Amino acid sequence: MKVFLQLSILLFGAISIAQTPCENGMAGQYPCNGLDLSSRISLSTMNAGAGNDSWGWTDPQDGTEYAIMGLDNGTAFVDISDPVNPIYLGKLPAHNNQNSIWRDIKVYKDHAFIVSEASSHGMQVFDLTRLRNVNNAPVTFTEDAHYGGFGNCHNIVINEETGYAYAVGASSTNGGGPIFINIQNPLNPIFEGQFTGDNYCHDAQAVIYDGPDPDYQGREIFFGSNEDRVSIVDVTDKSNPIPISNGFYGSVDYTHQGWLTDDKKYFIIGDELDESTFGFNTRTIIFDVSDLDTPVVHFEYEAAVAAIDHNGYVVGNDFYLSSYRAGLRILDISDIENKNMVETKFFDTYPSSNSARFDGAWSVYPFFASGNIVISDIDRGLFLVRDPLLSVNDNTNLSFSIAPNPVKDVVTITSKTEPITSIEIFNVLGQKVIDANFSENLSENINVSNLQTGMYVLKINATTTKRLLIE
């Protein structure tokens, strides 16, 4: 990281200082390690009594980042292009103004899809491009479409590769199992089936499988966290989902949520009630799912704090875990194969206690290319934090844009006026991984499919720098 720090200074000049840096283990009143506080928006600012889920959207048109936060009375939208001075743009009220402390949001094709435990809420659809031109913020938004195929619903999962949403924990005839909704036309959601062959599903992840099991290559596989088990289902054919296997573990109380490692070899899950029931410190269970027919516990990780774990997501070699009263915890999982996980950073949004109670950090969104990390806190609202080593500002030459960002295969660099003559890409170790020269066009495509997932610095014409996230 020292090399990257030197690179950052070389490319950007002195690294910008966050609004409240983490110094001597504190960022203002908040305990921390390795994460600076950029800003916070209180619940009172958003006219809400409690917070819950969070997600994010990056505008493909200009790379502007927006935080999305669930509230007890609606969904908030925040422009975080300047993370030290975020702009609360407004709120989409709960459908029929039926409030609930449970709300969940995911994004597909520049639309937000929102569900809630409120009895007749269904699924709201909101066109996020409306956030580009908000006058006199904050404003009250209206939904652009509504799906009423169910009432209350605990969670929503979206596979962006296929354009399907999976409503889980919904009031329906399948006992809370996943409901398959075609959202390829976001404003016209269509029911296409459901799975009734397992427990109530609390949360899940659905992927086009490209992991180590040769039997399921290219299939759409659903990994459900189903109260007392992991449930793996082939959902390629929405009219005929096929159960593959269940994964079980000891001292189970409530299998809450899980996320796959990038290589699809491991599924990292949290049990929401085992800390309070059995007296564990924050416990994370790692399943080896390299054989989808036979998932087995690889090992268990127990943290140094007693807090309850909630939502966790993987970005490269980092596992971002919202841990209620212990805030956000970031774990290095680079040696997960050898049964090692190490906490490297944290930001505690609930400074008074780390006990096993339901307060503090509900969720985290760690997928922004900028390095901005969103934490949604039940009691204190929305936090923006970031690693100070990544707290470098883009050289804001607005004539250049890059899209998509995050990217998997090909990124397009576009200029409004100045011809593009060179593009360099550096990894976080400061190593130049791509060096290309051009004959002064206004648009160029760069194939990045051979680069590993993670954060990169893209330099245009030896002067303008942009952050690039490769999925």
TrEMBL record:
A Pfam cross-reference name: Por_Secre_tail
Superkingdom is Bacteria
InterPro entries for the chain: Choice_anch_B (IPR027589), Secre_tail (IPR026444)
Q: Residues of the signal sequence?
A: 1-18
Gene Ontology cellular-component terms for this entry are: extracellular region
Does the keyword section mention Magnesium?
A: no
The alphabetized UniProt keywords are:
Signal
What range(s) does the Secretion system C-terminal sorting domain occupy?
A: 403-468
Name of the featured protein = Secretion system C-terminal sorting domain-containing protein
Q: What is the lineage of its organism?
A: Bacteria, Pseudomonadati, Bacteroidota, Flavobacteriia, Flavobacteriales
